Amino acid sequence: MRGREMTLSFPPFTKAVVWLLGINTAVFLALSAFGTAPVKDWVELYLGLVPSMTVFHFAIWQIVTYSFVHFAFWHWFGNMLGIWMFGASFESSWGMRRFLELFFAGVIGAALTTIVFAFAHILSTPATVTIGASGGVFAILMAFGMVFGENEIMMIPFPFLIKAKYFVLILIVVTVAFAIGDRGGVAYLAHLGGLFFGYLYVKFAPARGISGRFSLSEWYYGLNNSYYRWKRRRAAKKFEVYMRKHDRDVHFDEHGNYVPPDDDTRKGNGGSKSGWVN
Predict the structure, then answer these.
(1) What phi and psi values does residue 120 have, to the nearest 5 degrees?
(2) Low-confidence ranges of the chain (pLDDT < 70)
(3) What is the pLDDT of residue 156?
(4) Is 2 within a domain?
(5) Is 161 helix (H, G, I), strand (E, B) or coil?
(6) How many CA atoms lie within 13 A of 218 on its CB side?
(7) Are 148 and 94 within 8 A, CB to CB?
(8) Same structural domain for residues 164 and 242?
(9) Which residues span the domain enclosing 140?
(10) Alpha-helix runs per DSSP H in the chain
(11) 131 and 40 in one domain?
């Protein structure tokens, strides 16, 4: 799936993109209007990603909620622009479910990467706070470079075009360089985590998406069918026992299907087995 006919100029506002933009914008405006210092401290501690809180206090929700928290305008604006400009292309091509899977794979993967490096005391500590949707955005950027790599992107504000795959390659090199240089530390670790998990999702996720392959309805019907097959085998065993008590032998196979007796001596049909006739 290459999608060379796609363009990044004024992409549509697709459903999932609108929801992500709306939630992030609502939180950003609320924090801008009512975010006093105590409120912001509380939001960082309980809704941001704080590895020590996530691990020791079981604040598991932080691996998702941190991605909806932005305090600075340009941080919020850059992430929203990335979700819209690149995410809308994916949602239009892949559908809402798979696009959201990709986004949250990046968000959660970036959180896990940050936590691991924090406890290893590499560029951060378990008390360091991470906020923002950059992990999800970088997963989208990585996926875009892999799937729509031949598409050309305008390098705003520079007046030239570059193929998406080269843009993502430059992005990776710059991100690694900043991470090694400890400029922004944990934020760049989250970016690298988003890039890595975006790659994993595109490379290994099923064509129908993870939730499509392991959907709740398929699991339910599979379990339901297994239950009825077990009931049929159990009933067959009970019937065999009942018939033996009445001096008759009947047999069922391992699936609970009736096995007809061999009637070759009575029918004279060359040893064939008789069965039910409809």
Answers:
(1) -85, -5
(2) 1-9, 155-158, 180-186, 211-222, 262-278
(3) 63
(4) no
(5) strand
(6) 6
(7) no
(8) no
(9) 15-214
(10) 15-34, 37-46, 51-56, 62-65, 73-82, 88-94, 96-119, 134-147, 164-180, 186-204, 210-213, 216-245, 264-267
(11) yes
